[in-house]
Amino acid sequence: MDNVYILNNLGKGSLKVTITPAQHKTLTHLPKRPPVDLAFTDLTYKVQEGRKSNVKTILKSVSGRLRSGELTAIMGPSGAGKSTLLNILTGYRTSGMEGSITVNGMERNLSSFRKLSCYIMQDNQLHGNLSVEEAMSVATALKLPSATTTAAKEEVIQEILETLGLSEHHKTMTSNLSGGQKKRLSIALELVNNPPIMFFDEPTSGLDSSSCFQCISLLKTLARGGRTIICTIHQPSARLFEMFDHLYTLADGQCVYQGSTGRLVEWLGSEGLQCPAYHNPASFIIEVSCGEYGDNTGKLVRAINNGKNDIRNGMPFPEVTIPPYNNKEAMEESLKKQWNKNDLSQVQEKFKEATNGTNGNGNLQNGILQYAASEIAKGDPLVVQMDTEKQDNVEMALLGGEGSPKRYATSELTQFWVVLKRTLLFSRRDWTLMYLRLFAHILVGFLIGALYYNIGNDGSKVLSNLGFLFFNMLFLMYTSMTITILSFPLEMPVLVKEHFNRWYSLRSYYMAITVSDIPFQAIFCVIYVVIVYLLTSQPAEWFRFAMFLISCLLISFVAQSVGLVVGAAMNVQNGVFLAPVMSVPFLLFSGFFVSFNAIPVYLRWITYLSYIRYGFEGTALATYSFNRKKLDCHQTYCHFKNPVTTLEELDMEDADITLDIAALCLIFLVLRISAFLFLRWKLKSTR
Ligand SMILES: Nc1ncnc2c1ncn2[C@@H]1O[C@H](COP(=O)(O)OP(=O)(O)OP(=O)(O)O)[C@@H](O)[C@H]1O
């Protein structure tokens, strides 16, 4: 359908422009968000190294302005502090920082800011087991308000995928996408709620030159839509460099250039640094920053006043003042004024999306866009038929404080449900997690059944039967513990990204992963126990079987929780070594190797912590307690013919299975809470 726009250039009549989009490539269905300008003043970042007195200053009182509608590159030599600056601006790193960061002239409220921004990290943290479409569905389910209809969500997904050139690949599994496609998917996922500020850490790393160009074109397109796009980049090619609107260059933690990319060479020339002909300006500024043309850093830092000066007019930026607002209306009014300042970007967005869409081809400087922009630049009032809704929908989140809406777009229950469904889908698709585990339980079940075949009621084989009971504990413990230690740390980077970008709360995520694996673990455990119980001819009484099964189930749940604690607290290498080593004392004090009374008094407390002891005791009581009849004996003398003798030998004659079950439940709860606390600590400490 043709779009008709009236450019009512007052005093000069009106101009009618008819635009026929080549294909449906608009982002009209995204939620409307306000444009955001970000400024930072005298930003200093220090870290402590080694001894407490050894403080390293990474950012040295840098200042800068990052405007909406512009694509900003943060450049500098390796180790200059680019990632550190980006991490501070995103709010990813908060401790050790001094200075002020303002958003549209007001002191940044980190909580509100994080709702307006997204951070796309270098290694596209994506779940490989989801298709593009499924990943997008999860993003819309979590990032758009629950009130959004399914049809509207579908439309958002459709639009974004078409715009980013991913619609052809909507059924492709994320793990099979190319590097460039993965990058685009990472952007697509965050674009769902249309954040006005987007941060990218090295968006072009690992991409070939054509994909780099496409990626930067896409970022430029997003910037032209009124968004503030900031990315760190390593020495781009001259072609890529030209595409950036704004360049912020760091050298040794200080700002050596801030301004348009187009004026870089001219400005450096005015400082006595002539860029050789046919030399890439991006390479030149890096070389200058590295000191290849002498020590110019101090001179450049002074000339630019460490980022306080605007290269456009060589003057310091106007002071940021925060007006004293008396009421909410005054704040809204002020924000609307700021909004109106960004009319240019709104016009650009409208024209861009109506004409060529955001298809990443970089062809943005079309005639209409230039016309509209130049008219505004001249100061002539220009009325464009636009979404008036945008102006009314000033985001109170910018203001922070009382008017600030909820922390997440959806309720914790919705987050729990969406993450649970996603985790169940992963489990179904994860070969190791599902089929290999099932196979192992069945195989080992039959192996043990064959080894201890029919010994359950044989008075001469009670010691072997106790060995069987202990082996059950060992097997169930290791299988459920190691799978969690191996799989959970792999989830961490995605969790860090999604949690930081406000997809869900840690609580909802944790509840979902806690619940998701329990049914599978339970099914595997039941299959194993049924096989071994029948093959080894344990007492054929339902209540004994139930107690035996409950003890085994609880052991596998507890061991899984141990795996979660270890997986949350450390990486795979350490976890795989430490968890089995840490389990050794619990195995030794389980009551199988040494009976309780034989353990030295000062070491007995360990048995109370040994979950293996409770599990082993539970299965032993289920087998030999509750007035079990004497066992069969096919030899002249069977010492353990009477089950009471076995219990006496194990010091379990007074033991109570209810206490064992209660202790296992308590340990389970304590471990699950500890795993949550470790996870929370880990999320904070990685930042
Ligand atoms: N936690 C830390 N402890 C000690 N030094 C740190 C810490 N974090 C960063 N640094 C140092 O700060 C400097 C800047 O690091 P940063 O990662 O920001 O550099 P960069 O410009 O992004 O480099 P690159 O382009 O190589 O990624 C480096 O010298 C780095 O070693």
TrEMBL record:
Classify the protein's membrane topology as the record does: Multi-pass membrane protein
Keyword Membrane carried by entry:
yes
> Which residues span the membrane?
435-455, 467-488, 509-536, 542-569, 576-599, 657-679
Give compartment(s): Membrane
Which cellular components does GO assign to this protein? plasma membrane
Record-linked Gene3D superfamilies: P-loop containing nucleotide triphosphate hydrolases
Keyword list, A-Z: ATP-binding, Membrane, Nucleotide-binding, Transmembrane, Transmembrane helix, Transport
Q: Which Pfam families match?
A: ABC2_membrane, ABC_tran
What is the first-listed, main subcellular location in coarse terms?
membrane
Single GO MF descriptor:
ABC-type transporter activity
Q: Where is the ABC transporter domain?
A: 38-277
- On the tree of life, the source organism's domain of life is Eukaryota
Q: Which InterPro entries match?
A: AAA+_ATPase, ABC2_TM, ABC_transporter-like_ATP-bd, ABC_transporter-like_CS, ABCG_transporters, P-loop_NTPase
Homology family: Belongs to the ABC transporter superfamily. ABCG family. Eye pigment precursor importer (TC 3.A.1.204) subfamily.
| Protein name according to UniProt | ABC transporter domain-containing protein
